[in-house]
Amino acid sequence: MGSEPSWCLLLCLALSGAAGTEAPTADRGWQPTDIVLDCFLVTDDRHPRAFGSSGDRQKALLVLKQVLVPDDGSLEGITDFQVSTVAKDDADAPTIFEASVDSVQIPQAEALLHADCSGRAVTCEISQYFLGATRDATSESAAWFISMQVRGGPSVSMVMKTLGEAETGAAWHPTLNLPLSPQGTIRTAVEFQVTSETQALSSALGSSVSLHCSFSMAPGLDLVGVEWRLQHQGSGQLVYSWKAGQEQAKRKGATLEPEQLHAAGDASLALPNLTLKDEGTYICQITTSLYRAQQNIPLGILATPKVQLHLANKDLPHSLICSVTGYYPLDVVVTWVREEQGGIPAQVSGASFSSLRQSMMGTYSISSNVMAEPGPTGATYTCQVAHVSLEEPLRASMRVSPHTEQGTAFGVIFASILFLLALLFLGLRRQQGPPGLRGTLGSLSLACR
Questions:
Q1: Considering the entire predicted model, what is its pTM?
Q2: How far apart are CA 267 and CA 197, in angstroms?
Q3: Residue 50: what pLDDT?
Q4: Which of 40, 98, 181, 199 lies 20 to 30 A from 112 at CA?
């Protein structure tokens, strides 16, 4: 946003000072407050409503006048914006747009007000909005499109129109062909806004999601239509549309509450049973009788991996296989850690990987293999899997005994089996001796008598 102007520094000091003198309460009502944002004015009209290059952008200030903001006790002592705080003599002085918001609601005003002070960067661009084929910026036809994004917060699109006619002797903006107020600002009024609470979403495979999109328009404007589209990998498709009371859901289960459109300006879209086909950027477009604006909401689908660790073979040396299955998106990190008893864990190098496999539903699977080296006292091998769907890596561990212990155990078991077989053989010989031998023993017994 560049260097911080004096008005923003004063605002941050006022907010912090007021917050420190009085504890905030749960509900202090609403307070009208000026919200001032650093913006860029796109002056090249060859690409209307497009982000300009560095060569066709000028500094600008957007002053949203007397916006109702929830008061938690930190707004006391804040004064209205004063043009005198901006250095007009500077050759690089910004163009100042004073915008009235009396006719619309700004639902994310608090996020915009506190963004600079909380270190959350705000991106703001202003460009000319062309009504139909009109391309001249005069006081009777000039309208402006505003795009604002708070990092990690809401995204707002606005359309404002220029107010008033040139007064006798009024100064004019040197490049925009618009009259300036006595304070040197361009006076406008916001007539339409479309807001999304978040700039990106991630949801689990098979879950449901609600894509937020709200709007507000000035009296005299009519709602013409709502359209949701999905863009993914260069292709687009219609998901849902509402026009003149007629609904059309192209995606099975996609729903929007039509009664909320007029009552609350809520055009949020609900999607149940998410599949990988639902991934992409959703475009919420609101069309009124005069203006059109939209919000883009990227949606990512996540599937959590499952991890299993097992021996590849029982012969020496042992080979361990870590199977990672059912994950999405593609990127996954598999690492091996070896730890001897009483030793320090160390990462294992030289692991090999199988070819990538993809299921019918689109999730991925892969296996990793390492040769186990237990050492003289044995070692524990851990397969660690990191993925974007996990808050912490998954781990699966197995202890591998040293070769001497394994050989000794095998010898003891083998000797025990031979001993048991010998005992069984002798027992059978005693019970089932040869018939001739039994007769001879009987004769000897009779002779002794």
A1: 0.78
A2: 12
A3: 39
A4: 181
